[in-house]
Amino acid sequence: MPEPSPDSLLILVCTYNERSNLRELFERIDAVVPKVHILVVDDNSPDGTSDWVESTQRTRDNTFLIRRSGKLGLGTAIREGMEFAMEFATEYRYDWLLNMDADLSHDPAAIPRLLAKRAGYDLVIGSRYVEGGGMTGCSWRRILVSKLANHFARWMIGWSVGDCSSAFRLYRIDSLRQCDLKSIVGTGYGFLEEVLWHILHSGARWTEVGIVYSERKEGKSKISLKEAWSAASSIRRVARLQRNVKKG
To answer: Which domains does the chain have, with CATH numbers?
Structure first.
């Protein structure tokens, strides 16, 4: 059985066809948080991502895998990772869950900066839109869409959060227990806005840390028009929840 995780931390990585990126990702994570527990939630990737993780478990016993039946959506994968963290929090002494992308767009070197902000907060967001943040290697279209999506979320919901759609987030596990994760409708990228609303609505204290987002070098992006529409639908759902709370 693995020893308790350093820094009381579990790192969550959700994957679909990311085998070509995982070795480097694991190495870079271990360089900054040695022996940390890593959970991979894989949607039955045809490229053998789950097989790679299973082989890695033989030499890296602080690695966990949830192999799912198919491509069920990023949001549901993150939710399963959150449920795993809550279920095993006592056994492995997890206090924090860090979610990050598998494609190296989130630099593991930024992890210590997020961890350093834990005191006094329940949620630390790795943000592209605060001091020290940015995007590199991305097309102007990708940058424009990202900025417009965040402006739309802030306008619709009234958030002061700079980066509402960032997946690079450090969650206090006790704050996740205050949320009804099963009530979240979004199954794709829109889950990020919906879970953010639930956490903030529960009274969680939050902050942002500037990170530089890099476009993936290997593999294919999962973002599509369908995902963009799903995310917009999630923002509209959250805006309705927010209006109902104000009327309440």
So the answer is: 6-247 (3.90.550.10)
| pTM of the predicted protein model | 0.91
CB-based contact 193:186 (threshold 8 Å): yes
Read off the tokens for 33.
Answer: 């948080």
Which residues are within 8 A (CB) of 175 and not within 5 positions of it... i.e. 6 or more apart? 122, 123, 199, 202, 204
Round the CA-based radius of gyration of the chain to a whole number and report it.
17
**Pairing state of beta strands 37-42 and 63-67?**
parallel
Could you report the per-residue pLDDT of 83-141, keeping only the tens digit for each?
Answer: 999 999 999 999 999 999 999 999 999 999 999 999 999 999 999 999 999 999 888 77
Decide: helix, strand or coil at residue 79: helix
DSSP 98-138: EEE-SSS-S-GGGHHHHHTT-TT-SEEEEESSSTT-EEES-
Q: Token pair for residue 211?
A: 């990170």
